[in-house]
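Late entry, written up from scratch paper. The run itself happened at the end of the previous shift, but nothing got recorded in the book at the time, so transcribing now.
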Amino acid sequence: MPPVSSFLRTAASYAWRLLVVGAVVYAVFALLGRFHEIAVALFLGLVVTALLTGPVRWLGRFLPRSLAVAACLVGGVVLLLGGLALVGEAVAGESTTLVREFREGLGSIEKWLERPPFRMDPGALSDIESRVGAFLSSHRSTLLSTALSGAGHLVQVLTVLALAVFSAVLFLHGGERQWSWFCAQLPAAARARTAVAGSAAWRTFTGYTHGIVLIAATNAVLVGLALYFLGVPLAVPLALLEFLAAFVPLVGSPVALAVAAVVALAAKGPLTAAVVVALIVVIGQIEGHLLHPLVMSWAVRLHPLVVAVSVVAGAIAAGVVGAVVAVPLVSVTWSVYTALRADRLGSAGVS
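Output as recorded:
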């Protein structure tokens, strides 16, 4: 039997490692999808911890640790509720104007589509509107039961938020002690490498969280200012939508801006909508070539193809939760691998 070439040996060794990594990643996303409420709560708790660790440490110089944690959490909740109140006031204040502009905008869109090159039949949009109304009337009972079932979803959301806040309190108040206790329970040979992996994972997750929040806030401010000066209604809610959508890299921001373009098309016409589409391109270039390379240098910079594959794989495995968690999970995994490899090489060099 002829000897196996070194190339085949190397390819086989990498192949089974990739299979193992793929199986582990699939299992993680499957667990996220199966227990997504717990996963979302813990993820939100870690996000809050990453954002508030710095302020808690600063306040801890003047206040007891418990008071510092309470002050930061209460301040964060007040800021969040204030933002939601601002959005609600903006929606309520523009609702009447928005309905009128949408009715006028739909009429202008219909006339625009009737001209070349589209040549849509007159009344096509009205026919679609009547069909939608008939559908809503015929499925009123189903829609009502679906709306009533939303109360159960509200209870789930409140439970997830409560668990997230509880986790964040524990992490902020004694996360380092909890990690030290966990490492102390491991075999002595594994404690040092576990400490290295944990430090790399938390450093990467904190950097990613700070970076993505900064990118989302920058995008939201740019979108909000542009829509405000263009006279597009609901500029504040659309800016908030852009902020939330930015947490899904490469995909979320264009989707949010596409919603803004539809609103601009219905309310202000095709010219303003075209300007919003141009805004999508400009903000995408700023985010991809300036913000991501600058901000994400705090964490692990991944190739755009890796980011895209991670987002799609996470969405397939666990829906929206997987799409949001995928990139930080891959970043943390790669950071841990790099740190452990450097530690192993350093130990081999010393010995």
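The chain has a mean pLDDT of 75.
(Scratch paper discarded after transcription.)
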